[in-house]
Amino acid sequence: MAKYSDQQKNEAKSLYLKGHKVPEIEKQLSIERRTLYLWIKNDGWNIVLNKEDTRYTIKKRIRLLAEREDKTELEIKELDHLIENLIKIENLYSRLSSKSDNSDNSERSDNSGKKRRGRKPKKNDFSDLDEVGLMEHFFDGLFDYQRDCWEHLNERIRNILKSRQIGMTWYFAREAFTNALLTGDNQIFLSASRAQSDVFREYIKFFALDWFDVELTGKDKIELITPKGVATLYFLSTNSSTAQSYHGHVYIDEYFWIPKFKTLKKVATAMASQKRWRKTFFSTPSTKSHEAYTMWSGDEYNERMKRADKPIIIFPDRDELRKKGIRGEDLQWRRIITIEDAEHEGCDLFNIEQLKVEYSEDEYRQLFMCYFIDDSASVFKFSQLEKCLTDLFEFKDIDPDAAKPYAGPVWIGYDPSRSRDGACIVVLANPQKHRGKFRVIEKITLHNKAWQYQAETIKELCEKYNVRHIGIDITGPGDGVGQMVQQFFPAAECIFYTQEKKNQLVLKAIQVIDDERILWDSKWSDIAAGFLQIHRSVTAGGSITYVASRSDLTGHADAAWAIMHALINEDFILPDDNGEGKCSFTFSNAA
Q: What confidence tens digit (pLDDT) does each residue in 437-463 have?
C-alpha cells in the first residue's frame, strides 16, 4: 500500500464529507481506491457523514417547528426531543473528531505540552463569547420589523400589536438570549400558561446549540455563564406564586388573551421596577373590552391626567403606528405590525391573497390586520370567555407529557376541514359530578391531511384516553371521517347540521359558558377567538340561527365548533334543576 501524507488524508476526508464519491476522490487526488475504503472504515468517516446528514435533517425540522406559532403539546414535546437528539449527535461528532485528530496527529500537543482531546459541548458556559460571531448569528434571517424592535431595545416599555405567525415570539426569544449574553442581565418570560412559556425556552435552547454548540440545562430557569456574570432566564406562567420575587427585563406574550391583566401588570411592574429593567408587551388583538385595552389605547394614562387636572394626550392613530414605532407621553413605544406590513418589510412567508380567500373578512382583519374583535354582536362576550382561561399544568390529575395524560373519561369533538382550512379535534375531560367543569386537555389542528389520516388521529386518541363519546360533524366533508371512525368506535355520534341542531349546539355552549363550567389552556387563543366569531342571524323565514361565516369553502371557528360537538353529549339542564338529575330540554328554531 502506497504511503500518503496526513495532508492527502485530510483532503480526502474533507471531500468525502462534502458528498464526493470514492471514485471521484481517487481520480482527483490520485489515492488508491482500496486505501480510501480502508480510511472510511477504520476512521469512521461514514458515521461522521451520516451524522452530518442527520444533523441537517434534525435542524431543518427544528427550524420548521420553531417558526410555527400556537404549537400543540405534541409539537413542543417533539421540539424538546429533537434538541436532545441533536445534543447527543454533537457529542458523538466531538468524540469522532477527537479520534480522527489524534490518529492523524498523534504527536501534536497544546501549549501546555498535553495532548489535545476532543471537547464535549459545554453546558450553559459562554465565558469565551465571541460578540462579533454572536451578532452575526442574531441578525441572520431577521426581517426589517424585527430589526426595528432591536433598534428600540432600550425603550422602557415596548407595546406591540401584531399579526399572527410573523415570528415575534421567535424574535423576542432570540433578542432576550442575545441581550443576556452581551450584558449578563436577567430575562423573564411571563406567559399565560406553562406551555406557552416553554416555547420561549425551546427556542433559546436551540439558538445556544445551533450558534455555539452549547447545551443548556434547566427548566423553569436557565443560568447562563457570560463574560459579564451569570444571567438567569426565568420561564414563568402568570399564576406563578414566586413571580414577584424575580427581577430583570420582562417579556409578556399574547397579553390580550391573558385573564386578569391588571393583576398581571402589577406583577410585571414589580419585577421591572428598577430603571435598568425593560418591559415588552406583544400580542394579537382580542376585544376592546379586555382589561389591557386601556393601556394600549392610552385611555389609562389620560384618565390619570384628568384626575390630576392635567391636559390629556392625543395618541397616534393606527396609520401612524403602522408606519413606525412611536413613543407616547406615557413612555410606551408602540407599534402595529400587520401581515401586510410584515410582507412590505421583507417577510415572504405568506400568500396574502390566498389568506383573504381562506378567511372571512372579519377573521382576516382580526388575525392578520390587528383589528380588535367587536363582541357587541357576538353571542359570547370576552368577559365570559375570559373566565374559561386557565393553565393546564394547574391540574394535578393531568400530565400532558405522559403516554396516558389523563385516566378519567373523556369526550372528543371533531370539526372537519373544508376545502382550505384545517380540521380540529378536541379532547374534553368531562365532569365527574353534576354541574362539574369540563376541561379541554388536548387540541389538534390538521392541515391538508387525508380523511384516513384524520380518522387515524382520532383512533390514536381512543388508545391514549378513556373515550366515552365522539361527536363528529358529518355535514359535507366530515362524512368520510365519520364513517371511518364508526368502524372502530361504533357509538360515535354523527352530527348532521340542520338549523335546529346548530341552535342546540350553540345554546348548550351558552349554558355551559354562562355557568362557568368549562376551562381551556390560555395558550389556545383560537378557542376564545372562535366563540367570539359566532353571532345571531335571521333566516329568510324569520327564525333565529347562529353563524360564524361558515360555508363549504370556509370552516372557521373550528375549535369552538369542535368543543360544541363534544358538549352536546350532555343534556340541557333546566334552570330550576334541584341537583337530583338532568333533564333534556329542546329549543325551537325561533329560540
A: 999 999 998 877 888 889 999 999 999
Residue 103 amino acid letter = S
Distances in Å between the Cα of 457 and the Cα atoms of 18, 449, 454, 558, 571 are 40, 10, 5, 17, 27
Query: CB neighbours of 309 closer than 8 A, spacing ≥ 6?
Result: none
Query: What is the C-alpha to C-alpha distance for residues 519 and 514, in angstroms, rounded to an integer?
Result: 12
Identify the residue whose cell numbers are 370539526: 415
CA distance 455 to 531: 25
Which residue is it, cell 354562562? 514
Closest CA to 547 of 511, 514, 506: 506
211 and 261 assigned to the same domain? yes
Q: How far is CA 330 from the centre of its chain?
A: 31
Q: How far is CA 246 from the centre of its chain?
A: 24
- The answer, as to whether pTM is greater than 0.85, is no
Whether the CB-CB separation of 290 and 230 falls below 8 Å is answered with: no
Host domain of residue 79: 6-104
C-alpha 196/C-alpha 200 separation (Å) is: 7
Residue 58 has pLDDT above 90, yes or no: no
What band does 135 get if pLDDT is binned at 50, 70 and 90? very high
CATH of the domain at 476: 3.30.420.240
Query: Is 292 within the bounds of a domain?
Result: yes
418 with 551: CB under 8 angstroms? yes
Cα–chain-centroid distance for residue 349? 17
Name the residue among 461, 387, 454 with its Cα closest to residue 428: 461
Same domain (yes/no): 175, 229: yes
- C-alpha cell of 92? 458523538
The whole-number average pLDDT for the span 91-96 is 55
User: 560 is written with which cell numbers?
Assistant: 369552538
CA 463 – CA 399 distance, rounded (Å): 16
> What radius of gyration, in Å, describes the C-alpha atoms of the chain?
28
In a domain, 572, yes or no: no
Classified as helix, coil or strand, 181 is helix
Q: What is the DSSP letter of 375?
A: T
Give me the count of residues in the chain: 591
Say what the alpha-carbon torsion angle 356, 361, 362, 365 is, to the nearest 10 degrees: 50
CA angle 165, 166, 170 (to 5 degrees): 90
Distance in angstroms (rounded) separating the CA atoms of residues 449 and 291: 39
Sequence-distant (≥ 6) Cβ neighbours of residue 69 within 8 angstroms: 164, 165, 169
In a domain, 472, yes or no: yes
Burial class (CB within 10 angstroms; exposed 0-12, middle 13-18, buried 19+) of 282: buried
E strand intervals along 430-521: 438-446, 466-473, 493-495, 518-521
Separation CA 194–CA 1 (nearest Å): 62
Q: Residue 222 and residue 218: Cα distance in Å, rounded?
A: 5
